[in-house]
Every structure is written in C-alpha cells, then in structure tokens.
Amino acid sequence: MSSPELVLQVLRAELRAASITYKALAERIGMSESSVKRMFGQKDMALSRLAQICTASGIAMEDVLRRAADVQPHADTLTAVQEKALIAKPRLLLVAICCLGHWTLEQVIETYAISEPECIGFLAELDRLGVIELKPLNRYSLRVSNAFHWLADGPVQQYVREHVVGDYFGGRFDGPGETLMCLPARLSLPSARELLQKIQQLAAELARLHQSDRRLPADERDGFTLLLGFRSWEFAAFTEMRRHG
C-alpha cells in the first residue's frame, strides 16, 4: 500500500473514532455526501483537502501524517500462539470476535454479561497479543487486515469444528436473509480454483457491506455469519457404497 493510501486509511480511522460520518463531514466542508465518498474512494488526496478535512473534524493533520508513516502492513492472520491464547479463554475469544466486528466497549458490555473492568482487561490483553491497538477512552484499532482469516486447521478452526459447527448448522436457515446450500459438483482443478477466487470475492464483498453498514444505528443491524467450506469430499457413508474393482 502506497503512502497516500495509508494517509487516507488513517484519516478514515480517525473519522470513525470521532464518530464523524461521511454525511456529517460533507456538511462541514460544503460538499455532497456522494462527492465525499468518491473522494475517499480515490487513492490520493491533495494536502489542501486533507488540511480542510482535518480542520473541520478537529483532527490534527500532523497526527494523521505521523500515524501513516508509522503504519505497518497488517497481517491477514494471527499466529498459532496468538490463536491458542484466544481459545484458552472463551470470554477473551468473544471480545476478540466483537473487536473484529468493530464493536465498541459499550456495545459489548450492553450485550454480554461482561463487566466494564473485565472488558477493559480483555481489551488490554488483546493489545498485548497484537490483535488490537488500545487507545485512550478504551477505543481501539485493529492490527489485522480487512482480509483477515483464521489459520487453516489452526487452533481457532479446530475450536470452531469442535464447539461451533454443530450449533451453527442446528438452525433452520429459514429466517429473513438466511439460506443453507449443499451443492455437489464434479469439477476440474482449474474450475475449482476459479470458484475459490469467486468465494474470496464474496468474502471481500461481505467485508465491504459490513464496513458500510457500520454507519447504521445498532438496532438496524443484526449478527449474520457466513460459514463456508469448499473441498474435495464425499460423505463417508456414500463412499462405502462405491463399486470396487
């Protein structure tokens, strides 16, 4: 990622931390919301425009530039050691997953039976583990990328298989916006790789919608989980019925 892109990334993060939406920013700088969105969709921004936005938002431009200079590329995964530390404490894993969903401390303690001191302690532990960077007033930024995923067959995936998959697939999948599909096919390896790319694009689209909908009030959003698997596989009971010879 180039330096101008990093500056925009940091600026977006600072605006989110200050709870300033694109609509609110547009009103402050005399632009339409759509123009502001287009401006942030570009990969560069004039210093004069950056200064105008920082002044209108009460953000120090020097801090934005310094943070952009200090930013290191975020990892797409945690290490096995980090994942083991999370699953050793299910409540810590819960808070970590909330952080990956960009929940505030207030949202966590309003939703779950976790006290404010406990939650602050978990945030501090996630900071030590390198999952988040804890900031003043118990705010944070993620130290993982938007393409984050758990390690293949790592500690968290093993935990999910043991404790989560049965609970997840125990649902009816007949609610608004829900579906369950099991679609067998015989594919060549190139076709399988093509489909894998489309699955990765779907994951990126989910991340985009998640990011976009964060601007909506909490009561207009619900927790959805996309659980995908794609591999060469046949149900063992069916394999036993194959003809041999």
UniProtKB/TrEMBL annotation:
Organism: Massilia eurypsychrophila
Membrane-spanning residues: none
Name of the protein in question: Transcriptional regulator
UniProt xrefs under InterPro entries: Cro/C1-type_HTH, Lambda_DNA-bd_dom_sf
Organism superkingdom: Bacteria
Gene3D superfamilies to which the protein is assigned, alphabetical: lambda repressor-like DNA-binding domains
Family annotation (SUPFAM superfamilies): lambda repressor-like DNA-binding domains (SSF47413)
Ranges where the HTH cro/C1-type domain occurs: 11-68
GO molecular function: DNA binding
